[in-house]
Amino acid sequence: MNLPENLRYSKDHEWVRPQAGSQVVRVGITDYAQDALGDIVFVGLPKIGSTVESGDALGEVESTKSVSDVFAPVSGKVVAVNTELESAPELLNTDPYGDGWICDIEISGSGEVESLMTPEQYADFID
């Protein structure tokens, strides 16, 4: 299972990558989540400018197996979405930590990223 060291992870199987020098984090689903979902055929993206609370549904992912919500791992405002996923949802399967990112969130609170799981904690969680 691929778990990059520079990310933090949620119990809902989302990852967060802090952007250097800002309050913005990039969000996606983990390699574990995409593998469990199977072939992804549709991604419902959040609206730019929408405000989310940690744990709120952020969007949805539809695979050949099921439809699953994507949950906000942090609270804040959606400032960017990956529109590439509209025409190529399979990027979540092929590159979940790179081109398969879902959105960027400007964090409204402090300490939220640090409260998420480290790669080691997430590995224990999914084991």
From TrEMBL:
N6-lipoyllysine modification, residue list: K65
Gene Ontology, cellular component aspect: cytosol; glycine cleavage complex
Cofactor(s) the record lists: (R)-lipoate
Domain Lipoyl-binding: 24-106
CDD domains the UniProt entry points to: GCS_H
Keywords, ordered alphabetically: Lipoyl
This protein's record includes keyword Ribonucleoprotein: no
Domain of life, per lineage: Bacteria
Annotated GO biological process: glycine decarboxylation via glycine cleavage system; protein lipoylation
Signal sequence extent: none
Cofactor binding remark: Binds 1 lipoyl cofactor covalently.
Pfam families according to UniProt: GCV_H
Subunit structure: The glycine cleavage system is composed of four proteins: P, T, L and H.
Family the entry assigns: Belongs to the GcvH family.
Matches recorded under HAMAP family: GcvH (MF_00272)
Described purpose of this protein according to its UniProt entry: The glycine cleavage system catalyzes the degradation of glycine. The H protein shuttles the methylamine group of glycine from the P protein to the T protein.
Protein name: Glycine cleavage system H protein
Gene behind the chain: gcvH
